[in-house]
Amino acid sequence: MVRFADGGERVPATLPDWLRWQAQQQGESIALRHKRLGIWQARTWTQVAGEVRGLASALQVRGFAGDSLLVILSRPRPEALLAALAAQWLGGVAALFDPLAEAAGQRELLRELQPDFVFAETLDELERLRGAGLAPRLTIYAEARGVRAQEGEQDYARLLAGLRPAQPEPQAQAGRGAFAFYRRGASGRSERQLIGHDELLRQGRQLVQAERLGAQEEALAARAFAAGGQARYLLAPWLIAGFRLNFPESLATRDNDRRELGPTLVAGTRETYGRLHELALARLPQPGSVSRHLVDWALARRPGLLRQTLGHWLVRRPLRDVLGFSRTRTPLLVGEPLPRDAEAFFAGLGVAVRAWPDPSEWHSPPVHPLPSVDGWVAGGPQPV
């Protein structure tokens, strides 16, 4: 139950409600960690909730309301997640865009959207936005290095430092949209996937219950931030179970950071596990060598007691350490299944990858997209 400003208590029904509940229940526990310059920087649940409310206040002052959209063009990082929650705090929608996507097509989508509110990670993302000819009312950027701010652009840290004391109460509603994703469809028209609070929380609760997730979990948010599966099976469970969510320093350091962290929960895609499979194969001895025979012997299915024991200490444990799976007990696969050879490899390591569906529904959005899930779906596909 969440305590509200009117003194009443209600069951958390939105992502911001769950954030506030976690801050009330375990305020001094660590909610987020982000590696910066080789050092893990931590935020508690109280700090996360306060930062989200502060960002919501800054957005509200600049005109962000319940029918507004915040475009987020960023790799996984705490500031991007907190900005998304701030938009949802005010009843709006966070539209996640992958900065590694093809630039020309993404600029076309952004020009169609013409967003008034944007979060951009670095100068590279700012330049992509500028190249699209956009004129947002407010653009927040996370990294100030090399940035010469133009009109309407503001550094994240300075924005927080200059906040007014008044902070709004959550205005999110269960039946409204929380996250939106955009792409160019096969027909050439833009398509949108809109996921509501109620859907996210329903699927998040299913995962938490099925996998028995609790506050003791360590999870890593690495590559696929701008994807519906991550919202369903990582962000929503994080808020419901109250575990620790970790962000690597960069994509280049994610494997080293995973090895150092040893996450208990991994939510990856076919591409995630495929890349790790290739990484492991590259480190194995050459086929036909004596050492490779030892590896193949240790990874065989249904090993006996001797093979189970020796194989663990000589092969499986070192390989799991290399991949950062030394403590992983909940390896999740979101979306498309793994190739058989990759699935067999992880099974041999004792990493039983469990598949969870990614029920992506893409539609052509209306000209002025509203953050109402039910109304948008009932209206059916409409041209841009």
Automatic annotation (TrEMBL):
<dbReference type="InterPro" id="IPR042099">
    <property type="entry name" value="ANL_N_sf"/>
</dbReference>
<keyword id="KW-0436">Ligase</keyword>
<dbReference type="GO" id="GO:0016874">
    <property type="term" value="F:ligase activity"/>
</dbReference>
<dbReference type="InterPro" id="IPR000873">
    <property type="entry name" value="AMP-dep_synth/lig_dom"/>
</dbReference>
<protein>
    <submittedName>
        <fullName>Long-chain-fatty-acid--CoA ligase-related protein</fullName>
    </submittedName>
</protein>
<dbReference type="Pfam" id="PF00501">
    <property type="entry name" value="AMP-binding"/>
</dbReference>
<feature type="domain" description="AMP-dependent synthetase/ligase">
    <location>
        <begin position="19"/>
        <end position="349"/>
    </location>
</feature>
